[in-house]
Amino acid sequence: MDRPLLAAAAAAALTLILGRWAIPRLGALQVRQRIREDAPARHRQKAGTPTMGGLFVLAAAGAVALALAPRTPQVVWILGLMAAFGAVGAADDVLALRRGRNLGLRARERLALQGLVAVAAAVALSRWALAGAAVQIPRVGAVALGPLYAAFVVVYLMGVTNAVNLSDGLDGLAAGLVAMAAGVYAVLAARAGRTDVAVVAAAVAGASAAFVWFNAHPATVFMGDVGSNGLGGALGGIAIAAREEILLLVVGLVFVLEAASVLAQVLYFKATGGRRILRMSPLHHHFELVGWSETQIVTRLWLVGLAAALAGLALGA
Question: Which pLDDT does position 102 carry in this prediction?
Fold first, then answer.
């Protein structure tokens, strides 16, 4: 565990150093958050906060992983995913900044670009033989998917990336949850002797945890889509490389709930001609509208995430 622990500490330290340097410069360059018109009213006060802080989180995690992880194809693959999904998020952020409102890529454009990244990742996974054609279900065993495994990888990576993105709506929420989930995979990979995957996961965990220093309420910087997409892609890639894909449904329970709340809201709205299950989706916005403070919501969802992380450690190989 020495090298993963060093990676987590180094990534955290580098994130803190880069953050102190980058945040004032993001502000000076007018890289500032625009707020959705339909967002809860109290989000208006967040307008103008520097954004795209995910750039220095991804840089810190990537630099430390490259410096400390064994140079295996899995490491290259995970970092490539982080960079490619981060680039899609960055395009979204830049377009939103240019338009002066919180509207970057259209949904279909974003999904198309994410799909291209995921397909390329699945092809590389097959050509480099980085994974088998089966998924491991905790306490059950391996379930062979055969030729369907590539399709599974595409859907899985897009799903994880967008679930993390949907969770990035309150100060510190997504970064803290990613830190917990990646930390679990660092421990599990280290237990299994997969030092390469463990170091990358630990670097992602350390960088994400340190970002909370700047992103805790009231946030002085937001990660932007570049951060949430990049971290989501990295987390999905780590789970696949560790061959514990299904376990992420447990470890990342809050991400699952956030994504499921959006899906349920949309389906129910269409089926009932305009009625809603929640006051607003994703789930954290519903809690805002029922009167919970931002700090209460984030703390409580972190506690759910921590319980899920501990359950994942118990279930993991």
Answer: 65
Contacts of 83 (CB under 8 A, 6+ apart): 58, 62, 230
Q: How many CB atoms lie within 10 A of CB 133?
A: 14
pTM, two decimals, is 0.94
pLDDT at 133 (0 to 100): 79
Helices (H) and strands (E) in the chain, counts: 12, 2
pLDDT at 36: 67
CB 134 within 8 A of CB 143: yes
Quote the DSSP letter at residue 135.
Answer: E
Query: Residue 264: what pLDDT?
Result: 93
In sequence order, what DSSP letters do the residues of 184-225 get, joined into one string? HHHHHHHHTT-HHHHHHHHHHHHHHHHHHHHHSSSPS---HH
Inter-CA distances, 59 with 42, 62, 77, 100, 172, Å:
31, 5, 16, 26, 19
Q: To which residue do tokens 């140079």 refer? A: 71
**∠ CA(58), CA(63), CA(65), 5° rounding?**
95
* Number of CB atoms found within 10 A of residue 196's CB: 22
One-letter amino acid for residue 220 of the chain: T
pLDDT for res 138: 87
Q: Please name the amino acid found at residue 160.
A: V
Give the residues of the chain that fall short of pLDDT 50.
none
- Residue 55 DSSP SS3: helix
